[in-house]
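seq as requested:
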Amino acid sequence: MSKPDLICVILCGGVGSRLWPLSRELHPKPFITTPDGFSLIQKSFLLCNDIPLYTEIITVTNKSLYFSVIDEFKKLNLNKQCLSILEPFGHNTGPAIVTAALEIQSTYGDEMPMLVLSADHLINDKESFNSAVINAVELATQNRLVTFGIKPTYPETGFGYIKYINNSVISFIEKPTKAKASEFLSDGNYLWNAGIFCFKTGVLLYETKFYKPDLVETSKISLDNAIKSSDIINKFSTIIELIDESFVLTPNISIDYALFEKSSNISVIPCDIGWSDIGSWTRYTSLFPKDNCNNSNNGLTNLITLKSDNCNVYNSNNDKTVALLGVQNLTVVDTEDALLVLDNKNDQDVKKIYDYLKLNNNITYKNHRTVYKPWGSFTILEKSDRFQIKRLEIKPGGSSSYQLHRHRNEHWIVVSGMAEVTCDDKVFFLDTNESTYIKAGLKHRVVNNGKIPLIMIEVQTGAYLGEDDIVRYEDIYGRLSIFN
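struct tokens:
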């Protein structure tokens, strides 16, 4: 395979807590779908694929999201390899970017340019973006650290700003007050900080060693101790899993604080690329069409808005009727297991609700009722202390691990497709309308060898029904070692 012109590093680590309850810890903002049917991370993949240079793609993400990331990549049928660097937990952008640079350096050397962007931002003007990337790569070859700045269109207080003159960065400014943001807009020498970077690997590592040497040292130790393997299921994917014991040594710091706010070697590319960080419900719902009263919704057919204006409605269930009467400036978000109603002026504070739920161990911070697995997904239909009912959907070729549960029994009923079941070393088949019983302590597995999704109803009974009641013996997805 020929050497690429550019390595695109896609960071997929943020939860997007301001978009709760649509965004959850195990189904975060990058997997949210936009009105055209593509998720934000898919749009990032397509953006990198369409750059008029020969590119390779690296994703840096939490290991719990690996299969979701690869599933989104597979759906696009891109003729590319995807290297995945898996973090055991989030440690900000500093370790993520430096680790990727170290890996690229080990393969291609110091001169390879790399483009870094977030999986949860939206860029609508591909032509302008491609032009900015070409300019950024040219500056990077001149040993400059390059950042992308967005030309502001209004006095936004939720973004950081870049002060610049003639493409040289003068300073970085944290999120300003409304008055300051208005001054920046009038001044004309300020840009929104988009968090998109371009540089040669050697330049990035050299400068980071100068300003934050422990970041490079600890990231190298973490990478040296990582578990490296090929994904035997997704043959286009290579995995580098960073282990807890080494990764915890890296400083929890952004690349902005570690390097960009200290270096005098920063160039900025002023851009007008249709960029948005989709960082709040106001910004996300702005993607949807509005009616004559400035109300937006996600394509609902059973929505009534009477004497209401400037409201945003998102409902995950289009069969449910939603009615607004005599209200203004509200956002209403209805998912299967959570309802959010907020005054639009408080959209930046939704994170406080997410933090409260996490602090009190309310599961709605972490999962939706539908949970995605490498073999497919399950949806919790009903749950109590001693029983739980799930809908399982196993994709063609999908297989659960060969496993047992110590505390729960499982009843399986096939409602669509054909299941190959292994239980206590016996293999048999279940057709539609057939069922079986898996007693606690018995090793078992279900496989879908068919061409259509296998759909089963699973009734669990027992004293403990937690997802951690599982002992794996075999697993085609490698979860015995690095994903357990």
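The domain at 370-474 is CATH 2.60.120.10 (Jelly Rolls).
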